[in-house]
Amino acid sequence: MKKISKIANDEVPYIGIDVSKDELVGFIDSTGRHVSCPNKARELKRLSRQFAKLKPALIVMEASGGYEALAVAAFVEAGLPFAIVFPRRVRQFALGLGIIAKTDEIDAAVIARYGRLASIEPMPVSSKELQELRALANRRTQLIEMRIADQNRLDTAHPSIRREIRSNIDHLNRRIEKIQGLIEKHIQNCPLWQQTDEALRSVPGVGPVLSSTLITDLPELGHLSNKKIAALVGIAPFPNESGKHKGKRFCKGGRNSVRRVLYMATIAATRYNPVIRTFYLNLCNRGKLKKVAILACARKLLVTLNAIARNDSRWQPIRYARILF
Predict the structure, then answer these.
(1) How far apart are CA 242 and CA 230, in angstroms?
(2) Are residues 70 and 97 in the same domain?
(3) Domain containing residue 154
(4) pLDDT tens, 27-68?
(5) Which of 35, 199, 234, 279 is the most exposed place for a label (fewest CB within 10 A)?
(6) What average pLDDT does range 75-94 have in this prediction?
C-alpha cells in the first residue's frame, strides 16, 4: 500500500475509490496521487487512519455488489464522511468529460471529480441495530427472489422434478416467514421503530413488508418534502421537453428496493384503501393506462406515508384524501 503524502495546498480533498473484490484503488484529487489497498479489514483500517489525517470533505465509492462493505465499515469506525454512488451515473459523467478509457486508476480519478462537482451529501451513519435490520431485510428479498424463480420454473418443469421444486418452494416459504419474524422482533425492540411501524401500518394496504422496507431503506421518510421523497424513490415524473417538443414524462432511477415493494403494496391499496381506490378509478375513467394510474397511486401513497411519518400521526381518510401531488 502506498503511503499518502500530506495535502500540498489548502484545498479540502475529495477521495474517489474504485472497488473490486480483491483491491481498492483510490485517488486524492488535491494531491493528484493514487493509493491502493487490499480489500481486507485490517488493511482498510490502516487506510482509514491515513485518510483521517487528510480530513477529506468526502470519500466517494461506486456500489459494487457488496464488495464495498468492508470499506464502509472501516470508514464508519474512523468517523470519515463517505457516499456510495451509482456506477452508471459515474460512467455517464466520464463520457461527458470525453474520458473513454477505463482503468482502475482512471475510474478512481473520475469518481473523485464526480464527488466534488456533483455536490453529493455524505451518507448518514447507520447504527449497529439498523445494519442488522437491513441485513435481514436484504436476506428476505433474496429468499423471495429465489421463490419467484422456482415458481416460474414450475410451469415448464418436467413432471419428474415438480415435486422437488414444490418442496423447495415450501422450504423457502418457511424461511421467509422466519426472517420476517426476526425483522418484526427487531422493530418491536426499538421504541422509535415500533412507533413508526404502527403509524405506517395504520394505512390500509400497508403491511409489515412495506413498513419494514421503509424503515430500513428509506430513513429520509418524514424528513423530506413530498417532491424530494418521490424523486428519491424514483416515482417522480421527469419532464421530457426541448423547444416546442413536449414529450411524455417518465420515471427513472431511485431506490429499486423501495419502489418494488411500494408498487406491490399500491396494487393492494387500490383494492382495500378507499382513498387510493377512488383515486385509481378516477384516473382509469379519465383514460389513463392502468400502469400509469398505479404509479400515480404509488406516489400518492408514498407522500401520504411521508406526511404520517413527519407528523407522527395515524391514518385519517378525510384528512389524507386531500393530499395531492
Answers:
(1) 24
(2) yes
(3) 128-189
(4) 998 888 999 999 998 899 999 998 998 889 999 998 887 788
(5) 234
(6) 87
